[in-house]
Structure formats: structure tokens, C-alpha cells
């Protein structure tokens, strides 16, 4: 019965789209000043489907053409908005949580209300503890001291492996040893990659009924997703069981280290803890690696910036990078922020209106509407960043104060630069992420010259976490000591 129903739904939707596609020129277009052409019943689904493989460029173009930098994209009765302003009072909503629910379950990044609030409170406390920061810093130091992996490598792959090792050590107290290139790809890392990619591609379907039908039928990408999620859940659940047993019979020292031990000690059941740590692994596995990959490519295109960054890094490296030295790296932070402005690890994020509302520019939002803010497009708005918004200029992050020789980092509103979100859902691992990226970039840059093999501009791919298509193949040369 479910097979027939799914088949009927897909067939009906295809027929409707085909009819409107063939006769769209004859239909009366509805007025849609801030968005693409819209037609009765199907809204802007034709334009969406035509541009689904270049959504970043399409959305950015539409935003630039919109006087208010708000666009409306009706899709079969459900309108989607890309905003320039803050609207943190919108929950994620069921349509969004459906996309990631199979993988993330009831983890913090896929829930609203009391469940989110309680997990947020617990995680915020743990991230603020000095012991966790110290533990994470020691993990970083161990990983960075891993022997060189060769003279020509895919830098993106190395950073992804590194980030996965670090986040698993910090979250699970378990080392997947992904940086050992002589070993097969870790099955958990591989399953995470598959699950994240397919879950993200669900959102690019013009009609959610398509992927939902494939899930019911257990075919194609949804079949691969189910298998990958099973691997992730079973793998993490086994680590949770082993950790719980270790805490019960051990001395209790483990509880002072990784997040898993801390969450178990708080009294949560195994399934809840599994979902919680999966969310943190998902959040930390590719975000920092993506930012660092794009920064190294941008540095290779901007010698003057690389030289200035080296001038800041080298004296501090001689002291040994500690918390205080990392805090002093203001130009490093500006470079990282500028790289993430142009190539944000998370290109867009969606919420759903709990009730009817009116945005600041007068756009009316109905209950259940999807509302999306778009960091990739926001980073390319002239009215936010100036006419040079397409250029890589770390200097834009500084203010020069009278009487002060060294420029000072200026405060930038998180609603202008929402790479780490803003408001109550602002990323609680933000400072830890900057610490990690500063430590890694400083360590690599001071020891090696990174030279991209290809002269072509890389392609930005926006999945759950954005990445560089095909990776970043580079030659690594040991930097000469001057």
C-alpha cells in the first residue's frame, strides 16, 4: 500500500510540473517583486528547479537585485525567504528537523523548545570549563605533532582527517587515527560523510515528497543514507556503552575529560547521549577544516597577506603556542573571519515561523513559512561590506585608533556576520574553533610553504558543511629559516 501511495504521489507531482513547464509561457505570472517568476499553484518551482545546481549564485543575484535584500520564493504554497537581518525568534521547525532527524535524532542541533534549552544549558556549562579547554588544547598539540604526511597532499583531506580526529577525541574520548594514511578509511568517518551529504541534498529537492517517497521505498540515495546512519548509530552506541562501563568500574578520572563522559555523568540515558555527541561531531568535523582549506588557498593568491600573517605568527611560535599567544593573534583572526565571510562553512540556515509575523522590511511571514538567512550571499553584499566585497581583505576587520600603533580588531555584529549564528543559538564552540584554527594555521604556516598544484579557482560546494570540490592538492615545502 505504501509503495502504491508513494508511486502515485511522485507520478502526480511529475504530471503537475510537466503541465506547468510546457505551458508556463501561457500562464499569467503572479507579481513577485522580490524574487523569481511565480505562477499559480506551483509558485517559483520552475525557477528553483532550473537553478537547483547553482543555488548560491542564484540566491546571491536575487538578493543583490532586491531593494531590501529579502527575496520571496513561493514553492507549492510554501514561501522561502533569504534575509539580511536577524530573526532569531524562529524555531527550526519540523520541516527542517525532518531533513536531519534520521541522522541527528534528538541532538541539540535538531531540536527546539525544552529539549534544546536543556541540552544547550548543559553543553554551555561544559564548554566554559577550563578543564575541557585544556583537554582540547592538549588534543590539538598531539595531533599537530603528527609526522609529515608527504610532499604532495590534498590539504582539504588532511584537514578533514585532522578535524575528525580532534572532534572524536574531545567528544568521545576515542581516537579514530584518521591522520594515519597507511590505514583504511575509518568506517565511522566514511559513514558520516555519506550521511551528511545525502541529508543535505534532501534540501535541494524541489519537492520534499520525492525524497520522502524514496525513503519509504528504501531505494537509491535514501537506501545508502539508511545504511550510513545505521553505521554511525551502532558505532557511537558501542562507544557510549564502553564509556559508561568504564565510568562505572573506573576511578572516575575519565569524567574530567571528554564530552561523552561529562554527558553520561549528568544522568542522561544512552540514546540521548548518543544523539548529543553525534550532533557535536557533526558540528565540529568539517567546519574548521573547510575554513582552513579556503584560507590557505586565499593566502596562496595573496602573498602580501601571507607575509603579514607570518610576521605575526613567527615571533609567537618561538615562545610556543599557548592560550595567551593564541589570543594575541589578531591578524590571524581577521584572516580567518575574512575567509569565512567569502566561503562560510555553513552557507545558509533555515527556521520556520511559529506564528504569522512581519519582518523589519515589511515582508509578511505566515505560520509554517520557511525563513532562511544566507551567510554566503550576505558576505557579497556591497551595502554590508563595500564595493570591494568580493576581495579578500583582512584589513577590513580592523579599526585604527588615535595614538595606537597596532590596529585594533573592530566589533562586528553577528547579525552582519552570522557564520557562527547569532542570538540564543550562537555557536557555543566558537572560541574553541578559533583556538583550533589559529593553532593549526600558525603551526603549518610557520613550518611549511603551501603551494597549490592547480592554478584554477576552486569550486565552492554548499552541503551541510561547505567544501572545495575535488579538494586542494598542494605541494608542501619546508619553510627556510631566515
UniProtKB/TrEMBL annotation:
CDD domains for this protein? CYP86A (cd11064)
Q: Which key words tag this protein in UniProt?
A: Heme, Iron, Metal-binding, Monooxygenase, Oxidoreductase, Signal
Q: Which InterPro entries does this UniProt record tie to the protein?
A: Cyt_P450, Cyt_P450_E_grp-I, Cyt_P450_sf
Q: Which residues form the signal peptide?
A: 1-25
Task: Look up the record and name the cofactor or cofactors this protein needs.
Answer: heme
Task: Return the Pfam families for the record.
Answer: p450
Q: State if Manganese is listed as a keyword.
A: no
What protein family does this chain belong to? Belongs to the cytochrome P450 family.
The family database entries (PANTHER family) matched by this protein are listed as: CYTOCHROME P450 (PTHR24296)
State the name under which the record lists this protein: Cytochrome P450
What species is this protein from? Brassica rapa subsp. trilocularis
Amino acid at each position: 500500500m505504501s509503495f502504491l501511495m508513494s508511486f502515485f504521489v511522485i507520478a502526480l507531482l511529475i504530471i503537475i510540473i510537466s503541465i506547468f513547464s510546457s505551458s508556463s509561457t501561457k500562464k499569467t505570472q503572479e507579481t513577485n517583486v522580490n524574487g523569481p517568476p511565480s505562477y499559480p499553484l506551483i509558485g517559483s518551482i520552475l525557477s528553483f528547479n532550473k537553478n537547483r545546481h547553482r543555488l548560491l549564485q542564484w540566491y546571491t543575484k536575487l538578493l543583490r537585485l532586491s531593494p531590501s535584500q529579502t527575496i520571496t520564493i513561493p514553492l507549492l504554497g510554501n514561501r522561502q525567504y533569504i534575509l539580511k537581518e536577524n530573526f532569531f525568534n524562529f524555531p527550526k521547525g519540523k520541516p527542517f528537523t525532518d531533513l536531519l532527524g534520521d541522522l541527528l535524532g534528538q541532538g541539540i542541533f535538531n531540536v527546539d523548545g525544552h529539549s534544546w534549552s536543556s541540552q544547550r544549558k548543559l553543553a554551555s556549562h561544559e564548554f566554559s570549563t577550563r578543564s575541557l579547554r585544556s583537554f582540547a588544547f592538549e588534543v590539538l598539540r598531539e595531533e599537530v605533532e603528527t609526522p609529515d604526511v608527504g610532499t604532495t597532499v590534498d590539504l582539504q583531506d588532511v584537514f578533514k582527517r585532522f578535524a575528525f580526529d580532534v572532534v572524536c577525541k574531545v567528544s568521545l574520548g576515542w581516537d579514530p587515527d584518521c591522520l594515519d594514511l597507511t590505514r583504511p578509511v575509518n568506517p565511522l568517518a566514511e559513514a558520516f560523510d555519506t550521511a551528511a551529504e545525502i541529508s543535505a541534498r534532501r534540501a535541494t529537492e524541489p519537492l520534499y515528497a520525492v525524497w520522502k517517497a524514496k525513503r519509504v521505498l528504501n531505494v537509491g540515495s535514501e537506501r545508502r543514507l539508511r545504511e550510513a546512519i545505521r553505521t554511525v548509530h551502532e558505532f557511537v552506541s558501542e562507544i557510549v556503552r564502553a564509556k559508561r562501563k568504564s565510568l562505572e568500574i573506573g576511578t572516575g578520572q575519565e569524567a574530567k575529560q571528554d564530552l561523552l563522559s561529562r554527558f553520561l555523568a549528568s544522568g542522561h540515558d544512552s540514546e540521548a547521549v548518543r544523539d548529543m555527541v553525534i550532533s557535536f561531531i557533526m558540528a565540529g568535523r568539517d567546519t574548521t577544516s573547510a575554513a582552513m582549506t579556503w584560507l590557505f588557498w586565499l593566502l596562496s593568491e595573496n602573498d602580501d597577506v601571507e607575509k603579514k600573517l607570518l610576521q605575526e605568527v613567527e615571533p609567537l611560535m618561538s615562545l610556543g603556542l599557548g592560550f595567551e599567544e593564541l589570543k594575541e593573534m589578531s591578524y590571524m583572526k581577521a584572516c580567518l573571519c575574512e575567509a569565512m565571510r567569502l566561503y562560510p562553512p555553513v552557507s545558509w540556515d533555515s527556521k520556520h515561523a511559529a506564528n504569522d509575523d512581519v519582518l523589519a522590511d515589511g515582508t509578511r511571514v505566515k505560520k509554517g513559512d520557511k525563513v532562511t538567512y544566507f551567510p554566503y550571499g550576505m558576505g557579497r553584499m556591497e551595502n554590508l561590506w563595500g564595493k570591494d566585497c568580493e576581495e579578500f581583505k583582512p584589513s577590513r576587520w580592523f579599526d585604527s585608533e588615535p595614538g595606537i600603533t597596532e590596529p585594533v580588531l573592530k566589533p562586528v555584529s553577528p547579525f552582519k556576520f552570522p557564520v557562527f549564528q547569532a542570538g540564543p543559538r550562537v555557536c557555543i564552540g566558537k572560541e574553541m574553533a578559533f583556538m583550533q584554527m589559529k593553532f593549526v594555521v600558525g603551526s603549518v604556516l610557520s613550518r611549511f610553504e603551501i603551494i597549490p598544484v592547480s592554478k584554477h579557482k576552486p569550486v565552492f560546494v554548499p552541503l551541510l558543511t561547505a567544501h572545495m570540490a575535488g579538494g586542494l592538492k598542494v605541494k608542501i615545502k619546508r619553510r627556510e629559516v631566515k
